[in-house]
């Protein structure tokens, strides 16, 4: 879609570029594929105010939710909305590749350092790559594939087990319509599965469904359940859905007719899933909870066939292997001299001796000589250093390894980012707070840093003139005061063994 917008050569090359947040990238894709029609770009301030007050754009068009873009103000300073050649903003994907350009027609301050942007968007570059790209269809393409008449829409953000498949089959029979399954793929789902793993799990159940058309859709939660439900209903309607099978907040119809699923149970007499109240209690098995499913997968136990089709169970086991084979990031944080590096090295040595896991040690000092060479000790540089460590550790975890990280990591926001990197890579994350008090760390002062900081010879020393934010979400807390290193190492190994990441007999 180009909206008749033509630019001279060189304008895009010289335009400022920015990578939006995940939900903004998802909105961008929905704009470019005309799922958000009649919208052609990000909304103006006037439209945003009107949508909030009336659920309509300024021109009276019904529209349920804001579609916004925020950009750092230093980039906005390079944009002149009065000049068509100097109001272009290039938007890139998470890898830095240009995907779209915005013809910026309005900017306004939104929060510290950020400003809102309104304007028409158009696609640039080649966006035909990516897993399951063939399923990312436009509404026009889907309408050509789907038979006319009633269309049952189901938004599937979790793997489909037999109770959900039975609900879908019953709804499709009741409606006597075609089934359209929409799979959100812009971010890990509620079960923590990567988007491509979720798609594999859903496709593995296709032989258990009535005639179906699959579509992958870039939907990302915005943090507001009502807004997300309205948005999902709008997207479903754009693809021709007439009836929506309710799942959680999708009972907010957004104008669609909603089918409320029955509460089903497994009938042990004949192996069928029926309405719960139609089965005598002694012959009734309830569906497994998410916690029960996760526990089975964590232990490497098979999901029962009465509950999960074997093909789906196989894909789930591939996507979420047992903890003994799943990637793991163990992230040690604490003051300089707390003992975190020594403990991490001890844990690494112990795991290497057993040979059951591959181990990568990312020590703070070593990382600064290589991965983060050139960074200083300002708050921004420290944040960057920890994020780099977290990203590399997540990649180790993505491929089933164990990464042991031991930077100071004084800021909660950086540690949160490291946890998110690991989770998005499908790895587990264990935060170990080596909570040795400042007084004990100063007493040790192996590098002489505290003495220099007290003497004013250096600045930015964590615990002296730069803050350390103690974690409130640590999985394990160790104070090494009066504790031998061997015992501290054993505490970590016991924790890993007790939770299934290593053989507990090795702890």
From TrEMBL:
Record domain APS kinase: where: 326-479
Pathway info: Sulfur metabolism; hydrogen sulfide biosynthesis; sulfite from sulfate: step 2/3
Keywords noted in UniProt: ATP-binding, Kinase, Nucleotide-binding, Phosphoprotein, Transferase
Top-level EC class as recorded in UniProt: transferase
Record EC number: 2.7.1.25
Annotated ranges, domain Sulphate adenylyltransferase catalytic: 134-245
Classification via InterPro entries: APS, APS_kinase_dom, ATP-Sase_PUA-like_dom, P-loop_NTPase, PUA-like_sf, Rossmann-like_a/b/a_fold, Sulf_AdTrans/APS_kinase, Sulfurylase_cat_dom
Superkingdom, taxonomy of origin: Bacteria
Catalytic reaction list: adenosine 5'-phosphosulfate + ATP = 3'-phosphoadenylyl sulfate + ADP + H(+)
Residues reported in the UniProt entry to bind ATP: 334-341
Domain ATP-sulfurylase PUA-like, first and last residues per copy: 21-110
GO molecular function: adenylylsulfate kinase activity
Summary of the function given for this chain in its UniProt record: Catalyzes the synthesis of activated sulfate.
Classification via PANTHER family: SULFATE ADENYLYLTRANSFERASE
Family of this protein: Belongs to the APS kinase family.
Name of the protein described by the UniProt record: Adenylyl-sulfate kinase
Gene that encodes the chain: cysC
């Amino acid at each position: 879609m180009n909206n008749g917008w033509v630019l001279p050569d060189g304008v895009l090359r010289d335009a400022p570029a920015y990578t939006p947040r995940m939900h903004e990238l998802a909105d961008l894709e929905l704009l470019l594929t005309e799922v958000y029609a009649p919208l052609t770009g990000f909304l103006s301030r006037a439209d945003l105010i009107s949508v909030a007050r009336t659920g309509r754009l300024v021109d009276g068009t019904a529209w349920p939710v804001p579609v916004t873009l925020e950009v750092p103000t230093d980039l906005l300073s390079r944009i002149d909305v009065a000049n068509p050649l100097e109001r272009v903003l290039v938007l890139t994907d998470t890898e830095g590749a240009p995907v779209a350009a915005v013809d910026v027609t309005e900017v306004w301050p939104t929060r510290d350092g950020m400003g809102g942007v309104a304007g028409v968007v158009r696609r640039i570059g080649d966006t035909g790559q990516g897993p399951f790209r063939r399923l990312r269809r436009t509404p026009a393409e889907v309408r050509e594939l789907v038979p006319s008449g009633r269309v049952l829409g189901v938004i599937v953000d979790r793997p489909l087990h037999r109770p959900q498949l039975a609900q879908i089959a019953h709804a499709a029979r009741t409606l006597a319509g075609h089934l359209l399954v929409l799979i959100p793929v812009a971010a890990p789902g509620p079960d923590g599965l990567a988007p491509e793993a979720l798609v594999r799990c859903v496709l593995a159940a296709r032989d258990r469904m009535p005639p179906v058309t699959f579509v992958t859709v870039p939907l990302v939660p915005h943090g507001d359940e009502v807004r997300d439900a309205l948005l999902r209903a709008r997207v479903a309607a754009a693809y021709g859905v007439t009836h929506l099978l309710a799942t959680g907040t999708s009972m907010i119809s957004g104008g669609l007719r909603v089918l409320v699923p029955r509460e089903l149970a497994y009938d042990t007499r004949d192996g069928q899933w029926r309405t719960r109240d139609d089965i005598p209690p002694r012959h009734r098995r309830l569906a497994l909870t998410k916690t029960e499913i996760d526990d089975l997968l964590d232990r490497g136990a098979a999901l029962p066939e009465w509950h999960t089709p074997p093909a789906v169970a196989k894909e789930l086991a591939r996507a979420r292997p047992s903890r003994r084979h799943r990637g793991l990031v163990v992230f040690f944080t604490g003051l300089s001299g707390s003992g975190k590096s020594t403990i991490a090295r001890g844990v690494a040595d112990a795991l290497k001796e057993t040979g059951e896991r591959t181990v990568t040690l990312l020590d703070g000092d070593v990382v600064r000589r290589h991965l983060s060479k050139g960074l200083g000790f300002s708050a921004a540089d420290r944040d960057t250093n920890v994020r780099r460590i977290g990203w590399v550790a997540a990649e180790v975890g993505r491929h089933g390894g164990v990464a042991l990280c031991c930077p100071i990591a004084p800021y909660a926001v950086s540690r949160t980012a490291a946890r998110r990197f690991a989770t998005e890579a499908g790895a587990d994350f264990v935060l170990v707070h080596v909570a040795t008090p400042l007084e004990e760390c100063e007493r040790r002062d192996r590098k002489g840093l505290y003495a220099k900081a007290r003497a004013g010879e250096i600045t930015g020393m964590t615990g002296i003139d730069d803050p350390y934010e103690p974690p409130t979400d640590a999985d394990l807390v160790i104070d090494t005061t009066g504790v031998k290193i061997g015992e501290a190492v054993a505490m970590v190994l016991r924790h890993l063994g007790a939770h299934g990441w290593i053989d507990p007999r090795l702890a």
